[in-house]
Amino acid sequence: MTAQKRSCASTLVQAGISILKACKFVGIGRATYYRPERDWRKADAAVIDAINAELKKSPRAGFWKCYGRLRFKGYPFNHKRVYRVYCQMGLNLKRRVKRVLPKRVAQPLDVVAQANHQWALDFMHDSLYCGKRFRTLNIVDESTRECLAIEVDTSLPAERVVRTLEQLKAEILCMILYTAENDSERSILLMKALVSA
């Protein structure tokens, strides 16, 4: 950054502007303009070697971890010099920013007051006295809050869940067909809903 400003000021001086005005315009002091350029790689060779030695052991170490290890080893470099060299070497890592998920619009849940219209599945787990863990699958009717089925096992794979739902669907269909004589219109509507699902 300073080298760019100095070259800009020297260009302005070559164009015929005085050194004082050129330095004011660019934003550097006259001492910086007159100071001879030096290669930072030669001047800070000891710092570069120390940083490279630390980064060979742990390449993903950040600046403060690297600086702390250098101080622990007894190097006399202060943190400003080490940070300047660290940045000039292009080692400064981007800070990890936590991703902010978009906010969901809260919508009320619609519960239809009709049996077997909507079921809720819930997995729970617990452990026995001996320490063995088990899981339960609870299927609840949303409108009547009736527990339709509970499957208990040490593991409940997807095939088991699908099989339980298919069995439950067949049982509900049989119940609807059985009670079709009492309430024919409602039962036919429920049966159509289950068949189409």
From TrEMBL:
InterPro entries: HTH-like_dom, RNaseH-like_sf. It comes from the Bacteria. Residues 44-99 form the HTH-like domain. SUPFAM superfamilies: Ribonuclease H-like. Signal peptide: none annotated. It holds the Pfam family HTH_21. This is HTH-like domain-containing protein. It comes from Pseudoalteromonas peptidolytica F12-50-A1.
